[in-house]
Amino acid sequence: MSFRTSVFSGVLALCAAPAFADVKAADVWDQWSALATAFGYELSALPVREGLALTVPDATLTRQMPNDPETGAPGGSITMTLGRMRLVERGDGTVEVEFPGSLPVSVTMDGPQREKATASGAVTAQGYGMIVSGTPADTVYDLKADEIGLNFDKIETFGADPVTAAVNVTLDGTAGTTTIRMGDIATVARDLTVAAARYSVDIPPPAGKSVRTRLEGMSEGLKMSFAAELPTTVAADDVPAYLAGGYSLSGTLDLGSGTSQLVVEDADETLQVALARQSGGVDVSVSQDGIVYDGRAEGLNISASGGKLPLPVSTTMSSVALGLTAPAAAGPDQDFGLRLNLAELVLPELLWAMLDPEGALDHEPVSAELDLSGKAEMFVSLMDPQAQQSLDPTGKAPGAIGSLTLNKLALQAAGAHIGADADVAVDHSARSVFDPKLPAFGATANLRLTGVTDLVERLARMGLIPGGPALVGVAMIRQLGKVETGPDDLSAEIIVSPSGAVTVNGTPLPLK
After folding, report:
1. Which residues pair with 213 in a beta bridge?
2. Which of 108, 110, 122, 141 is the most buried (most CB within 10 A)?
């Protein structure tokens, strides 16, 4: 199911705030239809008026994918069918959305090469209530449910490597509000809390294979907040115009504490991996200005056994975080970036016993941090699949890097610390002297090594790295490095010119 499908389905089925004006059942249905169009879908159904209720026997969401830009062949489609639901006017200017205890759902996706994927299941609910209030142009949904389930008992993909799977998600204690304001740009804002969430994924062995994969997990104390702006006068399939027309999405998901278990069973072995966290979350935003993703988890406990592992292993980590920034639109000076932070990874003592039986090394936790950013010229939008496909036959890259900045590199392990930052400027009008396939570039880097030479010498004495190259490396570091607070605390400024000249603390190196 695509990202837009899941977001629209969430607006449709889990909307959420107090009544303050007058809204009719037909107004709610018209709003859903308009939102479907804003997301690039067509909502089809034949609602039937029954007194104060509008009954929707079946509803179908359909989205046609863009044709192949080279051949003009159809790009496939996505179709989702929902079972019967009712919109009931309550007589006080509000509407109640009634779902049955089990609402059938089916999804079909046809690819451009006649590939196909199907999913069938149901949305289930207990203690469910959703009230719609406000006006047709400014509508508020209030949701409460003891339990909501999304159960796809059969998901199948057909093609060269067919896969069958079952996916089940259960939300306990769900409550929240959603506000929808219609106009040339429709706005959707939602705040939602979930007391607990449970999920499971089961992938039986594909035909002719013996590997079965199962994933189960749960989270407690989830909170979600997101806001979207959707142009209603621009076709969603015209990605550049849709972005320029004001499309944006931003959201935060706090995952709370949770656990997960992965089991991979083969004919003669079973791999088991368990993960527990104290907290975690995701922040995401998408707009003309770019795509930003930041994910994090804190207080991690990880264990694994079986499979190809010789012995069971377990470890802890204070936190891990991953961040990505990518351009959304075509054009010059587009931001991109990568952020990675791994804090206090404790290596298992069993591993230390094998690597360092004499205790010659510092067994402190390992920490690493990387922060990269830069500017690029994008030839096409990364959110436009049709434009991406047009580049495939030519082999042309979707963009070109103009500058790259290493804001921070930090690595701490076994008593040593490495720190660095750097700037790289790229000149696409000339070729690099190091490799003619690359554009010319110039760079400046600052490097700080603390305890590194001592660690390298220890590793060489232990036989963990080749002694000869290690000693040569240590000698070069000591010769070229600038002493800071002591003999094993060294710094270096490294400059690479576009012509290929390299200096370290002013000393030229013959690398060309």
Report:
1. 203, 264
2. 141
Per the DSSP assignment, residues forming a β-bridge with 151 are 122, 168
Confidence check: pLDDT of 66 > 70:
no
Q: Using alpha carbons only, how large is the chain's radius of gyration in Å?
A: 28
Return d(Cα 384, Cα 69) in angstroms, integer: 12
Chain centre distance of CA 283: 9
Residue 239 CA, chain-centre distance (Å), reads 20
CA atoms within 13 A on the CB side of 38: 28
Separation CA 102–CA 324 (nearest Å): 39
Amino acid type, 398: P
What is the mean pLDDT of the segment spanning 235-243? Answer: 82
Q: Is 38 strand, coil or helix? A: helix
Residues 76-103: tens digit of each pLDDT: 678 888 888 899 999 999 999 998 888 8
Tokens (6 digits) for 349: 């003592």
d(CA 478, CA 457): 13
The residues that bridge with 306 in the sheet, in sequence order, are: 271
User: Does this model's pTM top 0.70?
Assistant: yes
Is residue 396 within 8 A of residue 429, CB to CB? The reply is no
Question: Which carries the bigger pLDDT value, residue 465 or residue 237?
Answer: 465
**pLDDT of res. 238:** 80
Packing angle, helices 452-461 and 467-480, rounded to 10: 160
Angstrom distance (rounded) from CA 413 to CA 363: 8
The one-letter code for the residue type at 419 is G
- Asked if the model's pLDDT at residue 364 lies above 90, the reply is yes
Residue 5 has pLDDT above 90, yes or no: no
Pairwise CA distance, residues 419 & 449, whole Å: 7
Contact 30, 38 (CB under 8 A): no
